Amino acid sequence: MSKNPTPLDRVRAFEREQAMRISAEERPLFHLTPLVGWMNDPNGFCHYQGRYHLFYQYHPFSRQWGPMHWGHAVSEDLLHWTYLPCALAPDTAADAGGCFSGSAVPLPDGRLMLVYTGVQPAGTFRRETQAQCVAFGDGTDFEKSLLNPVVRHAHLPEGYSEFDFRDPKAWMEPDGTFRMVVANRHEERQGAIVLFSSEDGLEWHFRGEIDASRREYGRMWECPDFFPLDGKQVLLVSPQEMHAREEFHAGYGTVAILGSYDAKENRFIRESLQPVDQGLNYYASQTTMAPDGRRIMIGWMDNWETCKEAPRRHPWYAQMSVPRELRIQDGRLMQQPVREIETLWRGTIRHENAEISGEQSLEGIRGRLLDMTVTLNAEGSACRRFTLRVARDAEHYILIRCELARGELVFDRSHGGSHRDIAHTRHVKAEVREGKLTLRLLMDRESVELFINGGERVVTSLIPTPMEADGITFAADAPITITAEAHPLG
């Protein structure tokens, strides 16, 4: 380290020292965790110079939230991650209160542009404010623009907040110009997503409002993403303080708004809304385009309620979801784990047309590193309730109960061993389609991601059960045949 180290130099030295003490066995197999310390939102998710880059909100010095930095990791397959040094630290007047969430844009000249929210701390007679900043670099080291912040509250029309103005998602248009959506809170319409354009990434112009909560879906919208997919335009947002309604649970969540978009008029027409994930631990999703044309999404496997006072079992805290492939089918956003997950399969255990009556296990199916698909053959069966228990021992289990007559699935981790007074249960639609209901369960030590009917609904949850609890049982209140295919992961 130099004689006059910068804040970023000090972070990088701290990372090197602390990371040496953490073994791979202390981390999930294929979910990204912070190198050290705390993690929240994914940032700057992109494919650049032959590798996927994922940055993340980061407090390296503690497992609690603190002054925000940008952690950094790269991968060739979205499953095995290599850590790079911390990319951004709060060290200028524009971001002295933290380098908050944002995005990354690969440039034609070979550089990578980071766009992020710089927080200016509160001062005498002044509240903390938020504005948008840029930095340019080679994928490892970045130089912040002297013009920061490049987008300020002054760029906005009257009625928009300078205190809730964050999380820029930028991209480059085919003509080489830039667009960027940013979250804000309007004094009348509450959570709102605004659009900016730029010729050079430095001078930005307000183009208009894409959509707003209108006091229906949360008071503030965070972490926007905006992209075309299968003939539709998709707006992803993460609402804060949402009231329970329709399929949306109360509190913090993620919403996909599907519609059409006229870029010339900047007019987005909302057609439908759906939860992105209906589980207990998912927030702040961000997408990128893979070289083969797939739209890939990743999210923070936590939220601002569940992380409070959560146990800190490891030298790091929090992890990302599995990256997911997105598509539109029958007017609905569908999700599946990236197909690269198959490279982790270490064999196949298959039970075809197995009859389940009462509670039983199936030979060879158990574990906490598993990709398992269960297909219920409900046609002609009198079964009304099918139950799957995973991460099971004599005392603990995670329950997945299908109420087939009602078309509902109950996910319940209340018997997982936690004593925390937080939500442990979700009720989700799970309808039999043409006589079948499919459940794909992805387990990675301390997490479960459940994909229902090919990914039309998803339930993500951290699970507190001890690692030794690895049993799996199947139960039905009347005979039903199932096909279960399980792939141990390694």
Uncertain ranges: none
Question: Please, what is the average pLDDT?
Answer: 96
Derived structural class: mainly beta
Shape: globular
How many DSSP-defined strands? 31
Estimate the helix proportion, in percent.
under 10%
The portion of residues forming beta strands comes to: over 45%
Rg on CA atoms, Å: 23 Å
- Work out the helix count: 1
Terminus-to-terminus distance = 38 Å
| Main beta-sheet annotation | 10 strands, antiparallel
Commentary on this structure:
The chain has one helix spanning 7-19; strands at residues 37-48, 51-59, 69-75, 82-88, 99-106, 112-120, 129-137, 142-144, 160-172, 178-186, 190-198, 204-212, 220-229, 232-240, 255-262, 267-275, 283-289, 295-300, 316-317, 324-329, 332-337, 349-360, 369-377, 385-392, 398-403, 408-412, 425-429, 436-444, 447-452, 457-462, 471-488. With 490 residues, the chain is mainly β. The strands form six sheets. Strands 22, 23, 24, 25, 26, 27, 28, 29, 30 and 31 form a ten-stranded antiparallel beta sheet that branches. Strands 4-3-2-1-19 form a five-stranded mixed beta sheet. Strands 5-6-7-8 form a four-stranded antiparallel beta sheet, with no helix packed on it. The model has no long low-confidence stretch (mean pLDDT 96).
Summarize the structure.
The chain is mainly β. It has one helix spanning 7-19; strands spanning 37-48, 51-59, 69-75, 82-88, 99-106, 112-120, 129-137, 142-144, 160-172, 178-186, 190-198, 204-212, 220-229, 232-240, 255-262, 267-275, 283-289, 295-300, 316-317, 324-329, 332-337, 349-360, 369-377, 385-392, 398-403, 408-412, 425-429, 436-444, 447-452, 457-462, 471-488.
